[in-house]
Design goal:
Structural class: mainly alpha
Radius of gyration: 20 Å
Number of strands: 0
Number of helices: 1
Strand content: under 5%
Distance between the termini: 66 Å
Largest sheet: none
Number of domains: 1
């Protein structure tokens, strides 16, 4: 089955946008949230 160039590039650009959202928004916010969670649950109770 033949895929038109426009469809191919639309699909490629959609993948690029999803990857950009994942690496710029989702992963940094998840790592910050996990850092706060680890600090609040493990490190702060050990200090007191």
């Amino acid at each position: 089955m033949r895929v038109k160039r426009v469809e191919k590039f639309k699909r490629y650009n959609r993948k690029k946008r999803h990857r950009f959202i994942l690496f710029v928004i989702v992963l940094p916010s998840a790592s910050i949230f996990l850092g706060y969670l680890i600090t609040a649950l493990l490190i702060l109770p050990a200090i007191k």
